[in-house]
Design brief:
Helices cover about 30% and strands about 10% of the residues. The protein is an alpha/beta fold. The N terminus and C terminus are likely disordered.
Length: about 400
């Protein structure tokens, strides 16, 4: 019933509010849930200054509101070498870049810690916080144009800054559908306003795309709430549809008495699942049948909502929503290995091409000059010889 859905919503999205001081360990030394990340941000000064010079200053990718937990990544200086394809992380709803106390706020800390342990550097690992990390507002977050355009700029900025031909993406929860749309591009329809167009697909610039516990068919917790919460928007949210064939409010049913194929759900999700545009060279889906947030074996209308169409699936047991992200770092790394080699962008710059061709041109010019000088010398010698002989004949 609708009453049960509302109760479930309150259970899944507890209400608590945080201000900036909450994210400062010195003012909140003994958190009730979770712990502070041992990995510290924000993005490096070198990256931040480059962003400012390159026109990204207004995007605030550093996210200093969250102190050292709002972002991560970047080189320390111009001379630092990048040796691996950069990884960009996209976190979920209520979460952020790095771990802070909370039920669903572990960020990308465990992943970054693992990748650094196998040789990655901050110059090859990037994440920025896209939400306010406030659970009391979690149901107001949808795939808004402002947020999606900003995060697409973040992806493009990392590619440009690292001069990498491609990036690898690891996304979690709501970050899965965020990252999918950023790569796919195209139009977003909002509940209010005309929406926006993100642009052309970026598939060729993505190596491996990993989606961890996403909700690609919507969330059953959103049935009946399409007009109540923005997160459950039928346009750009996680509305799973309230009916499927003759089944009404049965999204959570693992075995529908009247089987159906759900086609009437969030427009954003439906279009991504049917557009035929890949999220990368290879795509992988992770989920747990014991997910404590998606629930019901991660099923929506009888289908696995965490499965990305066309992807290679990995299904786990006895892992929570966050553990599926935190405890599978080794598997994540293995899947990235074929795309780990850093490939630098080679730009078409006429000046550089001229410089590369100049030794050959100079060599040709030198040979021609020598030939001309030799011919000139020979002509002068021949003329002198003829004149000398004529002079001798006159005298005798």
């Amino acid at each position: 019933s609708l009453h049960d859905i509302v109760v479930l919503r309150i259970f899944l999205f507890p209400v608590s509010s945080h201000n900036s001081s909450y994210f400062d360990p010195s003012t909140n030394p003994n958190p009730k849930f979770g712990s502070w990340s041992e990995i510290k941000g924000p993005i490096t000064t070198h990256f931040e200054e480059w962003l400012e010079r390159s026109g990204y200053g207004a995007d605030d990718f550093a996210q200093r509101f969250f102190h050292e937990f709002g972002s991560f990544g970047g080189k320390t200086n111009d001379y630092q070498k990048i040796k691996r394809t950069p990884i960009i992380f996209f976190h979920g709803n209520e979460d952020g870049a790095l771990a802070v106390p909370g039920n669903y706020t572990s960020g990308s800390s465990s992943q970054i810690e693992y990748f650094m342990s196998v040789g990655y550097t901050p110059a090859e690992l990037y994440v920025t916080t896209w939400g306010d990390r406030d659970s009391s507002k979690s149901m107001t977050n949808d795939h808004s144009c402002a947020m999606m355009q900003r995060l697409r700029r973040f992806l493009l900025a990392v590619l440009d800054y690292t001069q990498s031909r491609r990036a690898n993406i690891i996304s979690h929860s709501m970050g899965v559908t965020i990252a999918r749309k950023i790569v796919k591009g195209g139009r977003i329809y909002e509940d209010e306003g005309e929406g926006c167009d993100l642009g052309e697909p970026l598939t060729d610039q993505i190596g491996a795309f990993i989606g961890l516990t996403g909700a690609n068919l919507g969330m059953c917790a959103c049935q009946g709430l399409s007009t109540v919460d923005k997160t459950c928007s039928p346009n750009n949210g996680f509305w799973p549809g309230d009916e499927c064939g003759q089944n009404v409010f049965k999204c959570f049913s693992s075995h529908l008495k009247m089987p159906c194929k759900q086609e009437n759900y969030s427009r954003l999700l439906w279009e991504m699942n049917h557009d035929g545009i890949s999220e990368g060279q290879e795509v992988f889906s992770f989920w747990s049948v014991d997910d404590d947030l998606i629930l019901n074996r991660a099923i929506s209308w009888g289908e696995p909502t965490s499965f990305i169409p066309g992807s290679r699936p990995f299904v786990f047991q006895k892992m929570t929503h966050m553990e599926t992200k935190e405890n599978t770092t080794i598997q994540q790394h293995e899947l990235l290995k074929p795309y780990e080699t850093y490939l630098r962008i080679v730009r078409d710059e006429p000046i550089l091409e001229t410089q590369q061709q100049s030794p050959l041109i100079l060599g040709i010019f030198t040979v021609l000059l020598i030939v001309i000088l030799l011919l000139t010398a020979k002509l002068a010698y021949d003329k002198f010889s003829v004149g000398y002989r004529k002079l001798d004949y006159t005298e005798f």
